[in-house]
Amino acid sequence: MAGTPGNPLLEMRGVAKTFPGVKALTDVALTLQRGEILALLGENGAGKSTLIKILGGAHSPDKGEILIDGREVDIHSPVSSQAAGIAIIYQEFNLVPALSVSDNIFLGQEKTRFGILNRAEERKKTRELFQRLEVDIDPDAICNTLTVAQQQIVEIAKALHLNARILVMDEPSAALTGQEVERLKDIARELRSQGIGIIYISHRLEEIFSLCDRVTVLRDGQNVGEAKVDEINRQQLIEMMVGRELKDEFPPRQGAVGGTKLEVKNLSRGEVVRDVSFEVREGEILALTGLMGAGRTETVRLIFGADPRESGSILLEGRELRIDSPRDAIAERIGLLTEDRKLQGLVLPHSVRENFALPNLNWLSRGGIVNGRQEREAFDEYASSLKIKIPHREQAARNLSGGNQQKVVLAKWLARNCEVLIFDEPTRGIDVGAKYEIYCLMRELAAKGRCILMISSELPEVLGMADRILVMHEGRITGEITDVPSATQEQIMELAVK
Asked: What is the pTM of this model?
């Protein structure tokens, strides 16, 4: 549904913002119509987050103006942004986990009668908000018992309760299942039909083409393009974002696949992993896919020793391994790039140098003392070869983009000379340009004889990168695809729902 004639719902004109040593935004413009879903795209570091934080009142622009319904508004704080009818749903939700759904929605705006909380009225209004979204969530449910998708809906209901007319959704589908993503899209379409303007930020281009009306692209803090979604194709959009031609979204396969390197036999743990057996060959990228909850991550955690297995064996080059902990797996040159690199792959407050050194202290230290020179030289070598973009090696890991964080995690495992590398959702939350770099690194590692086990929920990624595909459902392997070039997403999904 296109926006209505007259003044746009939202205009941002000539917005600029500089941080010490960094020009984050330069003369940026953005327009949002009523009843429109606008995609805001760009690589990590392009300026999207800064622009949204200015709209949300978390940052003040150095210059520029913001207009709503053609009238300039002064947004200098989150409160003034909210008063202007703007709501921002960040990746990390702003909910109080121990409070109920209705308590969270009315927090700070409680319904009272004679000075006493009117919980019945709050529940009634909460149900009305969910009816508007065409969902059914118990107003008395405690938020920490809800799924990620349900918590997201609570955030949307909060925005509606505050009469938001402009809704910003920052990577809303990052932690959702395929079915939940479709439900989210239905809700966004319903809000659009009610005249709400939505700014939608996502690295998943298939969502942009199936949901959004128009796209605005930022690169290096500047506008580089704007188009109607039905007037641009995927390749044009990617090239607009990265500023260069990418002839192929996935690099070509290199080298030949050799003999079996890793073998898993009859791996089991309760109902989540049930009698799983497979092998990964030298120089092969084996994809393990399926719907969320199928048991993919649980399987690789058993291989890595992060969870205890009830039965089964793991062999490397024909030799059975005793893996009871991650320490054992690391000693056997098995590395795991976890699904959540921020919580499990990195110590965010520490420097990238320190993160690199953590699993390598056995050869970087002697007598309990780290050889600082050797540590720095080793890190610099991998930072250069992996093209990790950092101002200096003491940069805190939390301040890197998703792609560079992933490269730091990869660097520490390469320094261990890992023969088996497990990538769990290797490009989640990573922009399209950095994705290509990660894909190239994976191809190069396979060409050198490493075996790679890749878990991915993105079917284009699975089809573009895998030499062979295993599909899981309810803890079991339900199918294998060996002719990947001829495979389709529909074929994978049929096996995923068996």
From this structure: 0.68
Alpha carbon of 229 to those of 25, 196, 203, 247, 380: distances in Å? 24, 19, 15, 21, 42
How would you classify the pairing of strands 369-370 and 476-481? unpaired
Q: For 249-261, what is each residue's pLDDT tens digit?
A: 888 888 789 999 9
CATH number belonging to the domain at 260-496, selected among 3.30.450.20, 3.40.50.300, 3.10.129.10, 3.40.50.1400: 3.40.50.300
* pLDDT band, very low/low/confident/very high, at 206 (cuts 50, 70, 90): confident
Say how many C-beta atoms besides its own lie within 10 A of residue 270's C-beta: 11
Which residue in this structure is represented by tokens 């696949």?
257
Which CATH code for domain 10-242? 3.40.50.300
Statement: residue 332 has pLDDT above 90 = yes
Cα separation, 122 vs 70, whole angstroms:
34
CA 427, CA 434: separation in Å to the nearest integer? 8
Q: Can you give the pLDDT at residue 114?
A: 66
Place of tokens 């506008």: 223
Contact call for residues 187 and 89 (beta carbons, < 8 A):
no
By residue count, the chain amounts to: 498
CA 107 to mean position of chain CA atoms: 28
Using CB atoms within 10 Å of the CB of residue 427, give its burial: 0 to 12 exposed, 13 to 18 middle, 19+ buried: buried
- Give the whole-angstrom CA distance, residue 397 versus residue 142: 33
CA–CA gap between residue 484 and residue 257 (Å, rounded):
14
Residue corresponding to tokens 């990964």: 280
